[in-house]
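Quarterly update, task 2.4: 4'-deoxy-4'-aminopyridoxal-5'-phosphate-bound model.
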Amino acid sequence: MSIYNFSPGPAALPQAVLKKAQAELLDWNGQGTSVMEVSHRGKPFIAVADKAEADLRQLLSVPDNYKVLFLQGGGRAQFFAVPLNLAKRGDFAQHLVSGQWSKGAVAEASKYMRSDVVASNYEKDGNIFVSDPSMWSVDPNAAYFHYCPNETVDGIEISWVPKTGDVPLVADMSSNILSKQINIADYGIVYAGAQKNIGPSGLAVVIVRDDLLSYSRADTPAIYDYALQAKKDSMYNTPPTFSWYLAGLVFEWLLEQGGIQNIEAMNAKKSLTLYDCIDSSSLYTNHVAPQYRSRMNVGFHLADTSLNDAFLSAADKAGLKALKGHRDVGGMRASIYNAMPLDGVVALTEFMREFERTKG
Ligand code: PMP
């Protein structure tokens, strides 16, 4: 029986990547040791680090005037690193709140800078929408504008990009980076915790425009000072070397899949397959307005909630793992990041139809 892991994060990694890491674990690169046991300053590891960065730059077409940082602390560390690094650009930040994670970013950033919420999501006719840019405006004096294009918990994805003029746009792409083509030049900073589409948890990738590297507060902790880390090639402190190596393997795998264009098409197909199954059933529902439905995190509720436990345990027995929704939202959530094959989504929809036929 195939096992499919729908975990929201840490999430499934491509099988081919895990096999390669396994094959190289005890003797990496002819060194007679694992990659975890060599100096980050030695040539062999620097080659890994450089290749990972080059591949990521190729995948996302990162312009030359952006630095790519590989930092510790995951996604949440950037919630405070962003206000600290942009502190001298202005006295306040503006935020679009579209779900749990963008709300969390406001709470943390508020400790360091006034952080105003200019817009949130709302409900209309039983569906959840995000306030679109016609409903709010960006203050040109803001130090930056922050939003989260994919809300992992709520299953909300925003396909438009806020136009913020000269105010740097900061995007938390933890759960949809590398899932679709983006134009990096639209953003001042893009950051992502690694544990969905990049690699192991604990690592964060930060892509930051050069001109934003001179606004940090004097008391910014050194390891979160973007300018310092950029100068030191993310090696001011010892970087999470194994995670960086594994991220590099994921980037190679993405290039082998034909790059982001192909991955994006596959993600569209996977999510449509699942939403079609939900929409054509009378047992499963999803209340996110169709244009805001996430391609990565597909939530659904059972009309009869007394069936939740039976659904989860039958799914688990069928090899469909980690479908329980977030504790704050309830119901189910299938996270279908890049590493989830179409077969896994098809297996899930077949299971859902059969469950509805027999129990629903
Ligand atoms: N932002 C988003 C969109 C996330 O999904 C997560 C984690 N699920 C985070 C931030 C926080 O990441 P971490 O747990 O690595 O700090």
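Highlight for this quarter: Residues 9, 74-76, 101, 148, 152, 172, 174-175, 193, 201 surround 4'-deoxy-4'-aminopyridoxal-5'-phosphate (CB under 6 Å).
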